[in-house]
Known about the structure:
about 220 residues
Amino acid sequence: MEKYGFPQALYSCRAKKKKGESPPHSVAMATGADSPVLQVKGGKHGGALPIAHTCFGPEPPQSPEVAWQDPVPGRAHALLMVDPDAPRQPFVHWMVWWIPPVVSGLGAGQPTGAAVVPLLPGTEDARARRPVGAPLLLLQGKNGAGTFGFYPACPPPTHATPHRYFLLLWRLALDAAVPRGWAEATLDEFQQWISKSAEASAAPLFMYAGASMYTAK
């Protein structure tokens, strides 16, 4: 499989690089016929990010409900949500190091405030066997605001152009293991781990969000 960085469209014009140099914060991707397919409930690629996952809604924001179809069963996954258009780009909104092999989706509103949290109901993979009584745990690192778990999309109202929010999913290799100190790791360290631990990825999916998009007409 061919490995490459984030699609060039992920980087704003502010992210300049020399000819032949990899884009900053590029994360290894490997796609093919056996790659997983990622979906977000209520959203679509290139569309608007649902207001529930932003700071502009009437209710407390929550992480999106995501699901994937992976032709290879029994594998753990990793997930990343990032805004490349933030003033201090890229801004990490959600960095999930480990999603148990027995699930193929995450329900909306996963817990925040801790690195290791119980997994809220999502989609269980019928092809994988869950050990009786075994807890399902989600391992999530720090977001760009310095807290654990999901951080809502909240582009400054002064930004005339909506920001892009990319969701990326990787299928991890059978022998993948989170590294020591993962809970405090940076995006660069996540990148390095993914390049060694992932064997395939879903096609990148992005949605837009901006204050003007959610203003009542």
